[in-house]
């Protein structure tokens, strides 16, 4: 802990073992390797790079040699060295605030205002009517509308010389307002990507590490195959990304920087993972989440003029509901704080719950009790 | 150390004091405040953002309100919300490998290959003939050639609707081959920026923290006034940037992310700064550097057919020399390693020295002795 080593250049002799016993022990099914990074933004940006490298290799029939023109042009920021590839992201999505990740973020204007960007495609993400059971047909149509638009945009950008190398998406659009997509939507998204030749990156920076009751939120989707890249940070303490073998860069030094993450954070993660297992915290999060979800749903049924759209069923404690307007939402958050409960807001109307994995049923009951008081007093 | 806090949202109660006694105690003259970040790339990128915000405010006569059109357009990555502003950087410069910092990096093709970029201006940086004393007139002309090109490029990009909000430059182009600019060049660069309305960011990620014998390399330049922004990382253990008061963002949450650096690294820095002062390490670096520089210069005079262009006079131990070709350079680095001395290469021909601040005269003499052996055995 009393140093900041450059892991890429001088990895400690225990580095492999530490990675194996931590990050590799929870690698999502179907993925091959992991790269550590410092934060969520640069985890995503390096995942983006991996997709661009993969796309170029495919475009050139597997040839990964550089031409003289590649080398000269890239030093001047020009194609073919710096290609005009793009990534498709979603309205309401958030992937970070460094320049590259910011191109794909569309949740708040204040994040993007005044900063140069690139013309990359942005698709609509499904916005469901709740409760889901009563709106099956409409929500299915919403999935199809969004998927059709994704395909249309990829076709359009491919045609105009800005081919879409990959799709980047959160399993739950968290900053954008805890917007959930159905399993069918995500399977459809993967299918469209495969059909159009675009990779799929799932950004688990906010959802990864257990809050949905599984280590990775996308496990809930039961996708036909693994996404190509999964990124993480936050709860994982270290940033980084997992990828399939064919997404490992074809040359050394292409996914690289001075620090390559921070071994100290991986040491913390080792212990965190041990505690998650020892105390069965994923199961705890699932059980606690079910109580929270049911409790909030009951409040919604009692106070439909104040809150609605409770969501996050079977997603552990990763639960949100809407105030009927921003003012009501803000009042709920503020009044809860005065009662000693801290919750956050996201999007325009959402109250989002993000308790730690050690949040237990008894805590959930206290939260529900105080939330009821707050809503009654509105 | 056993946590990774979100400093921006929940700063510790000791945070202000820790910053005051560390980063603020060594703030470059003429600068006003500091922002911590995780790494060098995101320190630069957030410095870039600060310049873009400043430029927009000036362009709009100090009005920092957002128009409806700003808000709508920025969510789609389009102007005026996401303006077509640019930054001028230098051929051979390096500022990081996240997407934004990479646009301004031009030292190695492998860094940029296959990654989409933007058309931002790249100017030539002076390449001097050594020894400097024997090439005064030519090198002065080289300064003027590069400064003229900087001005020309800014004019050209301003005219074509991609105004140059700022100039970004390292005090020594380190990754590019330890390329030094004269004090006159840097003063001229600042003057051109002021004339054209572009800000000046000096990237001290590699030079900052003492290796040039002063805390900040740009102090050597005796600029008429402070640069607008100074970025740091590496030796400073924490990333971040200093800026003038008018470069603080005009609204909250515009320079922001989850972690905002890492308090653990600032705690390390506090002790590092104490030791630098206690052991007089800046003075040590200056004295040791003078010995190294003189010694290498003597070797150059004895073996001009093998090495040349010794540089870094009065720059502490931040010293480099060239092999006559890449093969000779690589052999020197490799053979030194076999004699227990680790040095690095940068650019095409340079051997660069980057000892720690505790490298003392007696170490310098050992290095010089082994370097002489290696050169004699070539």
Automatic annotation (TrEMBL), chains A, B:
Stored SUPFAM superfamilies: PLP-dependent transferases (SSF53383)
Any one GO biological process: gamma-aminobutyric acid catabolic process
Alphabetized GO MF terms: 4-aminobutyrate:2-oxoglutarate transaminase activity; pyridoxal phosphate binding
Record's keyword terms, sorted: Aminotransferase, Pyridoxal phosphate, Transferase
Transmembrane as UniProt keyword: no
Enzyme Commission number(s) from the entry: 2.6.1.19
Enzyme class label: transferase
Cofactor: pyridoxal 5'-phosphate
Keyword NADP: no
InterPro entries reported in the protein's UniProt record: Aminotrans_3 (IPR005814), PyrdxlP-dep_Trfase (IPR015424), PyrdxlP-dep_Trfase_major (IPR015421), PyrdxlP-dep_Trfase_small (IPR015422)
Protein name listed in UniProt: 4-aminobutyrate--2-oxoglutarate transaminase
């Amino acid at each position: 802990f009393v140093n900041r080593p450059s892991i890429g250049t001088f990895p400690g002799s225990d580095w492999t073992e530490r990675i194996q016993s931590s990050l590799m022990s929870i690698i999502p099914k179907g993925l091959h390797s992991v790269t550590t990074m410092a934060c969520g933004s640069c985890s995503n940006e390096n995942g983006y790079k991996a997709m661009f490298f993969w796309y170029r290799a495919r475009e050139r029939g597997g040839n990964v040699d550089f031409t003289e023109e590649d080398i000269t042009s890239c030093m001047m920021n020009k194609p073919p060295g710096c290609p005009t590839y793009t990534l498709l992201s979603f309205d309401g999505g958030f992937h970070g605030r460094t320049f590259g990740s910011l191109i794909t973020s569309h949740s708040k204007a204040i994040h993007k205002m005044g900063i140069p960007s690139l013309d990359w495609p942005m698709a609509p993400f499904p916005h469901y009517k709740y409760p889901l059971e009563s709106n099956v047909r409409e929500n299915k149509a919403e999935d199809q509308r969004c998927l059709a638009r994704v395909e249309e945009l990829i076709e359009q950008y491919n045609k105009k010389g800005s081919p879409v190398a990959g799709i980047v998406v959160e399993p739950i659009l968290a900053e954008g307002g805890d917007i959930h997509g159905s399993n069918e939507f995500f399977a459809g998204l993967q299918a469209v990507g495969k059909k159009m030749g675009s990779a799929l990156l799932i950004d688990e920076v906010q959802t990864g590490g257990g809050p949905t009751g599984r280590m990775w939120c996308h496990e809930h989707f039961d996708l036909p195959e693994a996404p190509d890249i999964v990124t993480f940070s936050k709860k994982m303490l270290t940033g980084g990304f997992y990828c399939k073998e064919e997404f490992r860069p074809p040359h050394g030094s292409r996914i690289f920087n001075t620090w390559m993450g921070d071994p100290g954070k991986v040491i913390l993660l080792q212990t965190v993972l041990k505690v998650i297992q020892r105390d069965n915290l994923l199961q705890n999060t699932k059980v606690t989440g079910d109580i929270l979800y049911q409790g909030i749903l009951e409040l919604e049924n009692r106070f439909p003029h104040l809150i609605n759209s409770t969501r996050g069923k079977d997603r552990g404690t990763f639960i949100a509901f809407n105030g009927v307007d921003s003012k009501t939402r803000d009042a709920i958050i503020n009044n809860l704080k005065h009662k000693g409960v801290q919750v956050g807001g996201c999007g325009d109307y959402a109250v989002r719950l993000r308790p730690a994995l050690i949040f237990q049923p008894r805590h959930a009951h206290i939260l529900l009790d105080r939330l009821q008081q707050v809503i009654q007093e509105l």
